[in-house]
Amino acid sequence: MSLIVEARGLTKVYRRGREEIYALKDVDFAVKNAHAYCPGEHRASSALQP
After folding, report:
1. Which of 21, 29, 40, 47 fits a disulfide with 33 by CB distance 3.0 to 4.6 angstroms?
2. In angstroms, rounded to a whole number, what is the distance separating the alpha carbons of residues 41 and 3?
3. In angstroms, rounded to a whole number, what is the distance separating the alpha carbons of residues 8 and 4?
């Protein structure tokens, strides 16, 4: 089974050359089944505090 994870609301906090560091602050993410014959989606919101 293949899953696709999409995250939105990431905050870029640092850049070094080609490397970019993102912080998980208030993230909206979705996990979807990658197979067209069996679509599924789970959504959740997470507020992670340092």
Report:
1. 40
2. 10
3. 13
d(CA 29, CA 8): 6
Q: What is the structure's pLDDT at 14?
A: 73
Q: What is the pTM of this model?
A: 0.25
Range of the domain at 31: 3-47
DSSP class of 37: T
The ranges of the chain with pLDDT < 50 are: 36-40, 42-45, 49-50
Distance CA 13, CA 5 (A): 21
Number of domains in the chain: 1
